[in-house]
Every structure is written in C-alpha cells, then in structure tokens.
Write a structure and sequence with these properties.
Elements (H helix, E strand, L loop, with lengths): L22 H32 L5 H51 L3 H29 L2 H15 L1 H17 L1 H9 L2 H12 L4 H11 L8 H5 L1 H31 L3 H33 L2 H20 L4 H25 L6 H34 L5 H28 L5
Length: 426
C-alpha cells in the first residue's frame, strides 16, 4: 500500500495488503478480466433462452456434450498460434476472432437460423475459458505464491464489478432490447480486453518466452507431458473434471426449472441476467474479504478439502426441493465458491511451475478439463434423458455423487502440495 492509505493500516497487518509494485499486475489482469467476463455474462444470459426457443430443454445436455468437439479444435489452434506468435499476439487473435464470431451469430440468429442458436450455446463456454485462462497465465507468471495470496482476491473482486452491473442491466432491459441484441452487445466488450492485457504482456521477459516457445514448438503433446511429470497437475486435472460435473448438473437443474416456470424467452434472459449478477455480488464479497484471509491463514490443503465438503451439504439440500428459488440458491452457492475461493486456491498451484505449464498445461487442465468434464456428464445425462426419461431431480443426484468423489481427489492433491512448493521453474 502507498500514499496516505499506508499510515491507516496497523503495522502488523501491512503484510496482508499488496505493495505498490504488486498493484500493476492487479490492474492489468482485473481490467482485462472485467471486459472478458462482462461480455461472457451478457452472452451466457441470452444463449440458454435462445437455445430453448429453437430446441427443447431436454436437448440441453446434448448441446453441452457437443462442446467437447469444438473445444479440442479450439485448443489445437490455440497451441499452434501460441507457438507461432507468442502470448501477446495470441491474445489479440483470440479476442478479434471471438468478437467477429459473436457478430456473425447475431445476424444468423436474427435470421432465424436454428443451428446458430446451438453453435452460440457451445461457443460461449469455449471462448471465455481460452481468454480468461490466458489472463491467469499472465497473472501467475508475474506473481509469487506469497504475492498472489495477497492480490488474487482483490483482482477477482474488481473483475466481478462488470458482471454485477451488466447482469442488472440485462435483468431490466432484456425484454426491451431482445435476446438477439444482447448477443451483439456482448461482442463490444471483448476487444478492449486486448488493449489492457497488452500493457502487461509487453513487460514479460521476451528472451525466456521466445526460447521456451521454440522448444515447445517441437512438442506435439500441447503440454500433456507435464501431467505425467508432475503428480500435482494430474491430481488437479481430475479435480477440475469432477468440479465440472457439479457445474453441469447444477446448471442443467436450474435451466430446466427456469424453462418450466418462466415461459417468455426474453424474461428468461432477464432472469439469468439477474441470477449471474447475484452470483458475482456474492463472489465479490468472498473475493475481496474471504479469499485473501483464507489463503493467508488457512493451509492450502485444508482449503482444497473443505470446498467439496461444502458442496456435499449443498447437494443434499437441493435433493429435497423443486422450488426455483432454492434450486437457484444452491447453484449460486456453488458458482460463488468456484469463482472465488476455489479459483484462488487452484491458481496458487501453478505459480512455481515454468512458462509452458502456465500457458499450455494450464489450458489442458482449466479449459479442456473444465469443458470436457461438463461435456462428458452432459452427454451421459442426454442419453439417460432420451432413453430412460429421467426426471430433472436426477441432476442433483449426480451433483452429490460428484461432491463425494471430489473429496477423494482433494486428499490426493493435498498429499502432493509439498511437492508443488518445492518445484523449480524449468
């Protein structure tokens, strides 16, 4: 801390706050993330409603399952572009491509092209992960474990301001503007993110990045080799897969409940806009206060164990209700923890590793792991929905089972944490 504020902080607490030189990465990452997640908050509010206006709610799992195909293609090209152009130009290419794709989808959906609603539903979960994980890769590159404990919560809290405000705007104006227009407006927020991250990426040591990219250009595993080399990364990969079983099942349960309770497409969009705004309000509180304190004073192994135990209790709670507000509350709780404490605890694991792990293996774990886990369980649920006609409450059974399995992998990752702390950057 600096300036007049410095004297207001008790001497024994100054180590909890970021120093002046630690604030620049916070500024770069938070402003970049602000625009990316504002865009995402808008498009993910509109896309489920637009999808269900062309398809039925029972086809949602199949749509999520198809995401895995698009994800593999996107990651392949991401790794190629990273090898050819480096992290700075790669982010520019990703933002420009995403912007153009949303504009194309706006015109296609406005023309009532059915498949555009499906491709938008898939695209929204791919582009945001590829962009947001590049932001975290930058943040983990310029921070140490100790500085990240202090700054990651503040950074995430600032990022959520955009989704909070944007969600409230959607909840009030979705029925006036229309869901199609919101897709177009979401594209306007993507390009500014490119300008802000460029400020930080220009300061990264170019010689080190250049040499590592040249070496990795000959590695056709796209970062997979590090999963075998470092047990903590493999453990984290499985935790991410399991966490996304929860993400998919809680989301599907909520989307099904919304489609049954609210009939108007634009009113559904408004509902989701308010819902995602509430998520970010709760997450911002946890990010600004809860996450920094937890990361500073609670062992990382304990944090990783407690999170799935909380989800077990949430899973039991939601099994016994069909009320939309209670289903929404359980989903909100999961996502708020995922966006704050789990994100902060997870990102600390990457910091001791080298550039290739932070920019390539991280994409395998946090993009492919996140979305393929969600896609895999969605395909299974799609089969069960079509073949056995299972009721929507079965989504919650899968959530509870996933939470229990998560505890097992949390023990494994806790066991590997000392190895992670001792890793040397390659």
């Amino acid at each position: 801390m600096y300036g007049p504020m410095k004297n207001l902080i008790p001497k024994g607490m100054k180590h909890l706050f970021p120093s002046k030189h630690e604030l620049f990465p916070v500024f770069v990452a938070s402003t970049t993330g602000f625009f990316v997640l504002t865009s995402y908050n808008w498009v993910r509010s509109a896309s489920p409603a637009l999808f269900m206006s062309f398809y039925s709610k029972d086809e949602l799992p199949w749509a999520m399952g198809l995401m895995a195909i698009g994800l593999v293609i996107a990651l392949y090209f991401y790794n190629k572009i990273l090898s050819w152009f480096g992290p700075r130009l790669t982010f520019h290419i990703c933002t420009i491509t995403s912007t153009l794709l949303f504009v194309v989808h706006y015109f296609a959906i406005s023309a009532k092209i059915k498949i555009a609603a499906l491709s938008l539903f898939i695209l929204k979960d791919i582009y945001v992960m590829i962009l947001i994980e590049q932001i975290w890769s930058y943040f983990n590159t310029v921070n140490t474990v100790e500085s990240s404990k202090k700054t990651s919560g503040f950074m995430m809290a600032i990022v959520t301001i955009g989704p909070i405000v944007g969600g409230q705007i959607i909840s009030h104006y979705a029925t006036t503007w229309g869901s199609e227009a919101i897709v177009l407006y979401s594209s306007f927020f993507i390009l500014p993110s490119s300008l802000f991250l460029d400020l930080g990426l220009r300061r990264l040591p170019p010689q080190r990045i250049k040499s590592e990219i040249k070496r990795e250009h000959r590695d056709y595993t796209m970062g997979l080799s590090y999963l075998k080399k470092y047990p903590v990364l493999l453990s984290l990969f499985f935790i991410i897969l399991i966490s996304q079983v929860l993400a998919a099942t809680t989301t599907l349960r909520l989307q099904a409940a919304v489609s049954e309770t609210i009939l108007s497409v634009d009113q559904q969009t408004a509902y989701f806009g308010n819902y995602y705004s509430l998520i970010n309000i709760v997450a911002a509180f946890m990010q600004f206060i809860g996450t920094p304190l937890c990361l500073q004073f609670i062992p990382l192994s304990i944090i990783h164990l407690v999170i799935p135990i909380i989800h077990i209790f949430l899973g039991i709670f939601v099994l016994f209700t069909h009320n939309l507000s209670l289903i929404m509350l359980a989903s909100l709780s999961f996502k708020s923890i995922d966006y704050s404490l789990f994100r902060g605890a997870k990102e600390l694991l990457y910091i001791p590793f080298n550039f290739d792990v932070r920019y390539r293996t991280k994409q395998i774990i946090d993009v492919f792991g996140y979305r393929s886990g969600k896609a895999g369980i969605s395909l299974l649920l799609g089969v069960l929905k079509t073949g056995l006609r299972i009721p929507d409450v079965f989504y919650s059974y899968f959530s509870l089972i996933a939470s229990v399995i998560w505890v097992f992998f949390a023990f494994k990752i806790a066991r590997h944490l000392p190895d992670t702390k001792n890793e040397k950057s390659a």
